[in-house]
Amino acid sequence: MRDQLRVLKHGLIASWIMFSAFQTWKTWTFMWLSRLLIQACFYALIGRMLGSQQQVDYLLIGNLVAIMAIDATVVILLTVGERHSGTLSLMVAAPASHLTVYLGRGLVNLGSGVAASTTAFVVLPPLFGVRLPWPEAGLVPLMIFVVGLSCYCYGTCVASFVLGFPSARWLALNLSYLVLMTFCGVNVPTSFWPDWLRAVTSVLPMTHGLAAIRAFIAEGPATTVLAQLGLEVCVGAVWFAVAAVSFDRMVRRGRRDGTIEFGG
């Protein structure tokens, strides 16, 4: 366990150095954060054009949580990038499990997502007349973090399948978070979809976490909120387990046939 934590810590440090090499507080605020805020405003304005405050509330809350999913799934680029740059074999040699090494690569982006989504929750609802139950709403960032962890495990799992096709990493990233935004209750209630598709969405991250946040903001029963958060944790754990198995198979196959050095 000590080796696992040490490798995770150094992976986090390395990811922070890479992140800070490309982002300053100015570029993060005025380029990345502003882009995410504008996206959320776009959907909220659709609700306003429909003349329904209820639609504004629904669309804005959904897209504020979706900000977290966009940042969390960036782990797909970071993980697949290791193989593209030819450093995968060095990471596999780390004194920890392969999954620990990869998880540490995107933790900074997970923090970025929590910061961006929380900022959006503070700034945008007053602009669109969305009422939040303050001071209880101060717990929303914790729920966003739970959603982020689940989405991060999902992104790591997707990355484990895309490792063999590094050139497809951008396609995988865009499809991954667009699937969540489309089917997990961000802009359209999950009840809109047919039963078979609703069953699929129940095993996707963000579905239950977003439902918990919506119930909390609507001051629904605490049992409902906690039950949905518990389901979100379970979904994240399943994606984590699948990622662990997939990474292990990829590394074993790469060692056996020599393709672990592949950087195409």
TrEMBL record:
The keyword Glycoprotein does not apply. It is a multi-pass membrane protein. GO terms for molecular function: ABC-type transporter activity. It is found in: Membrane. Residues 22-215 form the ABC-2 type transporter transmembrane domain. It holds the Pfam family ABC2_membrane. The chain crosses the membrane at residues 7-23, 58-80, 110-128, 140-163, 170-188, 225-247. Its main location: membrane. GO terms for cellular component: membrane. Keywords: Membrane, Transmembrane, Transmembrane helix. This is ABC-2 type transport system permease protein. It comes from Saccharothrix saharensis. The lineage of its organism: Bacteria, Bacillati, Actinomycetota, Actinomycetes, Pseudonocardiales.
